[in-house]
């Protein structure tokens, strides 16, 4: 074992974790690490233009690939700039490890230059965090950080690295295993509960599956599909669960909740057995909690015990990994052919009822001679290849994408669900493009949100990441304007984006391509052209400024109380 | 309902702040808190008394368990347990009341730990209700200074059989 510096040990640790890409931004406290990074040719480092962009990019990389995203920034302002990105990943349970520089240990607490207590600041928005005070702990801490980030309910972990720790020397050996007595997630569901779940489902007549992001995180969509089809149970997904069950499937109800489909919300409200899988009963899903699925026995499968009976009282919980529990449920069906056949017959009227709801109130919008944002999304869906990765910003653009883009597979839709972070989509798309250089990656953006991390266009150009940004330019902070329109007597207080840059010229200024589209008949051609251009593109779609997202459940109302088009 | 929860944690910097931050961040209430290392110095035991309905208590316990540095969570309220806290109280003790203060101390089996011409400082250990009774009796005489620890609890060895408190 030869002596190396903490900075070199850090690079070695990343290698041992199989890290091939990282995102970040340098500064005084991490000079030693960046110096070591220069010799690490096997680790592709992407210099973003803002630390928030680096964290979202690491997050997008993780969501698209299923691997842990890595981010490295300096102390103080570099560290505080990561907070929104970390909170975004935390709310959506995304495995990332964020390394922050820190002032030397003897200066900690002295209000030293560029000192911030980032461990204190991020304690409530990380799954766990560390301050490494001794270089001898470095290997163990990094090993634990990656392990904690990706296991159990995944999440962000932050590791704070004081400068003197990184330039002191150590006999380095990366540990082979982690020893964490107090952390042991439950993967295997309780067999007795699984048996009871199947018993309950086989007796149900109006079952619905409510699938969330946990299905994607557990890579359980194959099992989910098999289970739903075998029992012919309709499936609705949350925003985070989009793609976990294919939108085009006859059993698919689309999204539920505030901007969910009529069929999904009616089905949940009338169900006698709601099977929640990897979902957490968020208020945007449940609406008025007391009237959520009022007739249903509720089954809840989740790896995180704190999610169970947090917002809604559950009748049959099982703590475990969604994939393993679904496999257990499938196995439990063996030898129950007669009961299954009976259930399939008895639940037939339910499926017909749902089909009527689907036909009565499909997702729709009125065509006009101004470009409708929904139309742009339908055309992107039509033109983009099947394995295209779509990210969104936050607001109407995000909801329309969830409604009108037909996601066929998991990990193709990256969006900030829990925190609702404007400015997420573009850097996340950059991260996804790094993970999959040969696939099409599109950020469906709003004119407001795109301006929150627009500086990352330089990153896309520098690393030749051909991300396509489709801006649904309505000249408004559209989602906020929609609420003002519906609930504040159209008093549009500070929601007009009266001044935005000329996105075409801006793209050109950065060395990218810009397109502007003002007529519905040009939409298709513009999307095709954007996809044909080899580098990053900003396509500015000038859309109907007053278009709203429907259906809509007013905040706090029961979800069958929908405003329709 | 009041619950006493024993939380075994790693004895490390920042762990107290994780636990306390969890309570404040999620709007749970802490009535009292006591923390000290266990016989194994790498671990600490926190005793938290809190209150809330069944659902809140369930969340508190699950959320505590979810913290990486939390090793074990025991809700003593589910069990038979003994409970103690301690107070130090400086009571006005001038001519007329000097004897009475000592009499009250005696009745409650409190100890006199400091004396001055105008005051006695008493220490008393007991459960919450005993201490509150003591304070109530002393208040009219005049409490000059007062400090109280958090509650500590321990399971009874013989569960299900009430013994001398
Ligand atoms: C960082 C941040 N600030 C504020 C909000 C509140 N917010 C939610 S949607 C929205 C409007 C977004 O406008 P735009 O990006 O143009 O999207 P549109 O709704 O018009 O499609 C705002 C301000 C937010 N979600 N995130
Ligand atoms: Mg807008």
Automatic annotation (TrEMBL), chain A:
Cellular compartments per GO CC: acetolactate synthase complex
Sequence ranges assigned to domain Thiamine pyrophosphate enzyme central in this UniProt record: 194-327
Record key words, sorted: Amino-acid biosynthesis, Branched-chain amino acid biosynthesis, FAD, Flavoprotein, Magnesium, Metal-binding, Thiamine pyrophosphate, Transferase
Domain Thiamine pyrophosphate enzyme N-terminal TPP-binding: 5-119
Catalytic activity: 2 pyruvate + H(+) = (2S)-2-acetolactate + CO2
GO MF annotations, alphabetized: acetolactate synthase activity; flavin adenine dinucleotide binding; magnesium ion binding; thiamine pyrophosphate binding
Every Thiamine pyrophosphate enzyme TPP-binding domain range: 394-540
InterPro entries: Acetolactate_synth_lsu, AHAS_TPP, DHS-like_NAD/FAD-binding_dom, THDP-binding, Thiamin_PyroP_enz_cen_dom, Thiamin_PyroP_enz_TPP-bd_dom, TPP-bd_CS, TPP_enz
Cofactor(s) needed for function: thiamine diphosphate; Mg(2+)
Pathway(s): Amino-acid biosynthesis; L-isoleucine biosynthesis; L-isoleucine from 2-oxobutanoate: step 1/4; Amino-acid biosynthesis; L-valine biosynthesis; L-valine from pyruvate: step 1/4
GO biological process: isoleucine biosynthetic process; L-valine biosynthetic process
Claim: Transferase is one of the keywords in the record: yes
Record family assignment: Belongs to the TPP enzyme family.
Protein name: acetolactate synthase
UniProt lineage: unclassified sequences, metagenomes, ecological metagenomes
Automatic annotation (TrEMBL), chain B:
Keywords attached to this entry: Amino-acid biosynthesis, Branched-chain amino acid biosynthesis, Transferase
Gene3D superfamilies (alphabetical): 3.30.70.260, ACT-like. Chain A, domain 2
Documented EC number(s): 2.2.1.6
GO cellular component, one term: cytosol
Listed pathway(s): Amino-acid biosynthesis; L-isoleucine biosynthesis; L-isoleucine from 2-oxobutanoate: step 1/4; Amino-acid biosynthesis; L-valine biosynthesis; L-valine from pyruvate: step 1/4
Domain ACT: 4-78
Molecular function (Gene Ontology), one example: acetolactate synthase regulator activity
Cited Pfam families: ACT_AHAS_ss (PF22629), ALS_ss_C (PF10369)
GO biological process terms held by the UniProt record: isoleucine biosynthetic process; L-valine biosynthetic process
Signal peptide boundaries: none
Enzyme class: transferase
Family from the record: Belongs to the acetolactate synthase small subunit family.
Matches recorded under NCBIfam families: acolac_sm, PRK11895.1
Protein's UniProt name: Acetolactate synthase III, thiamin-dependent, small subunit
Source organism of this protein record: anaerobic digester metagenome
Record lineage: unclassified sequences, metagenomes, ecological metagenomes
């Amino acid at each position: 074992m030869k002596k190396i510096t903490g900075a070199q040990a850090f690079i070695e640790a990343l290698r041992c974790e199989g890290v091939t890409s990282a995102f970040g931004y340098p500064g005084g406290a991490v000079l030693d690490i960046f110096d070591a990074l220069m010799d690490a040719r096997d680790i592709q480092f992407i210099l973003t233009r803002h630390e928030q962009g680096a964290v979202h990019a690491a997050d997008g990389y993780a969501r698209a690939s299923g691997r842990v995203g890595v981010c490295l920034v300096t102390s103080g302002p570099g560290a505080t700039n990561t907070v929104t990105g970390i909170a975004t990943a935390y709310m959506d349970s995304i495995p990332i490890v964020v390394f922050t520089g820190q002032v030397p240990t003897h200066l900690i607490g002295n209000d030293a230059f560029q000192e911030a207590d980032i461990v204190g600041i991020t304690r409530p928005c990380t799954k766990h965090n560390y301050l490494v005070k001794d270089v001898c702990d470095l290997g163990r801490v990094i090993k634990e950080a990656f392990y904690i980030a990706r296991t159990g309910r995944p999440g962000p972990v932050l590791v704070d690295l004081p400068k003197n720790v990184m330039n002191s020397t150590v006999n380095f050996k990366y540990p082979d295993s982690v020893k964490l007595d107090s952390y042991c997630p439950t993967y295997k569901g309780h067999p007795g509960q699984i048996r009871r779940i199947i018993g309950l489902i086989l007796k149900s007549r109006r079952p619905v599956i409510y699938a969330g992001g946990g299905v994607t995180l557990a890579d359980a969509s194959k099992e989910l599909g098999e289970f739903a089809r075998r029992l012919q149970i309709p499936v609705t997904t949350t925003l985070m669960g989009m793609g976990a069950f294919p939108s085009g499937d006859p059993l698919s109800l689309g999204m539920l909740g505030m901007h969910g489909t009529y069929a999904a919300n009616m089905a949940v409200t009338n169900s006698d057995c709601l099977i929640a899988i990897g979902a957490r009963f968020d208020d945007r899903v449940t609406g008025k909690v007391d009237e959520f699925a009022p007739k249903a026995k509720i089954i809840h499968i989740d790896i995180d015990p704190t999610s169970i009976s947090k917002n809604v009282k559950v009748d049959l919980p099982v703590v475990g990994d969604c994939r393993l529990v679904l496999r257990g449920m499938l196995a439990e069906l063996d030898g129950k052919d007669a009961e299954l056949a009976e259930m399939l017959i008895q639940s037939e009227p339910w499926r017909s009822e749902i089909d009527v709801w689907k036909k009565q109130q499909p997702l729709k919008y009125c065509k006009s001679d101004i470009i409708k944002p929904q139309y742009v999304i339908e055309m992107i869906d039509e033109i983009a290849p099947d394995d295209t990765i779509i990210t969104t910003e936050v607001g109407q653009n995000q909801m329309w994408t969830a409604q009108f883009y037909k996601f066929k597979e998991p990990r193709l839709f990256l969006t900030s669900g829990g925190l609702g972070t404007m400015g997420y989509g573009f850097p996340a798309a950059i991260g996804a493009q790094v993970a999959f250089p040969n696939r099409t990656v599109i950020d469906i953006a709003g004119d407001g949100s795109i301006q929150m991390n627009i500086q990352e266009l330089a990153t896309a150009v520098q690393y030749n990441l051909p991300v396509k940004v489709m801006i649904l330019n309505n000249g408004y902070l559209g989602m906020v304007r929609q609420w003002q329109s519906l609930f504040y007597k159209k008093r549009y207080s500070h929601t007009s984006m009266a001044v935005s840059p000329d996105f075409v010229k801006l793209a050109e200024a950065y060395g990218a391509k810009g397109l502007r589209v003002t007529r519905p008949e040009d939409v298709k051609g513009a999307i095709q052209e954007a996809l044909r251009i080899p580098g990053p593109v900003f396509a500015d779609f000038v859309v109907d400024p007053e278009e709203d997202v429907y259906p809509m459940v007013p905040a706090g109302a029961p979800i069958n109380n929908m405003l329709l088009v | 309902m009041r619950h006493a929860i024993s939380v075994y944690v790693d004895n490390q910097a920042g762990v107290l702040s994780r636990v306390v931050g969890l309570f404040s961040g999620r709007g749970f209430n802490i009535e009292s808190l006591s923390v000290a290392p266990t016989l194994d110095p790498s671990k600490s035991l926190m005793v938290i008394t809190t209150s809330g309905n069944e659902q809140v208590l369930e969340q508190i316990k699950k959320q505590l368990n979810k913290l990486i540095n939390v090793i074990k969570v025991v809700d003593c309220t589910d069990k038979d347990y003994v409970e103690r806290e301690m107070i130090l109280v400086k009571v006005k003790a001038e001519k007329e009341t000097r004897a009475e203060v000592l009499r009250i101390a005696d009745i409650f089996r409190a100890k006199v730990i400091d004396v001055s011409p105008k005051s006695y400082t008493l220490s008393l250990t007991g459960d919450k209700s005993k201490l509150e009774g003591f304070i109530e009796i002393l208040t009219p005489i005049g409490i000059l200074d007062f400090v109280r620890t958090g509650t500590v609890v321990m399971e009874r060895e013989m569960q299900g059989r009430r013994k001398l408190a």
